[in-house]
Amino acid sequence: MVFQVTHHDLWDYDLPSPPALLDITVQWPEVPALIAVPKHAHMYILNRVTGKPVFGVEERPVPVSNVPGEKSSPTQPFPIKPLSFARR
After folding, report:
1. Active-site residue (options: 9, 12, 14, 23)
2. 81, 53 in Cβ contact below 8 A?
3. Do 75 and 61 touch, CB atoms closer than 8 A?
4. Is residue 12 among the annotated active site residues?
């Protein structure tokens, strides 16, 4: 299973530390979760068995790069919950 927190990472927004492994209660039973926080202050909470987002992730349009020779992704994944830790 693969989950990409930043598509075509031109800005070095990778994961600065390993993800945390926790069991969280959303509804019974507990969900075995993987929590990853990349440099852009979002928190991705994934089911560590299935790899699927626990609270959902949506693809949103973002500005594309106009630097010659660079081709950035027109969308990026945004977690639905929790909200971002900082403004970007």
Report:
1. 12
2. no
3. yes
4. yes
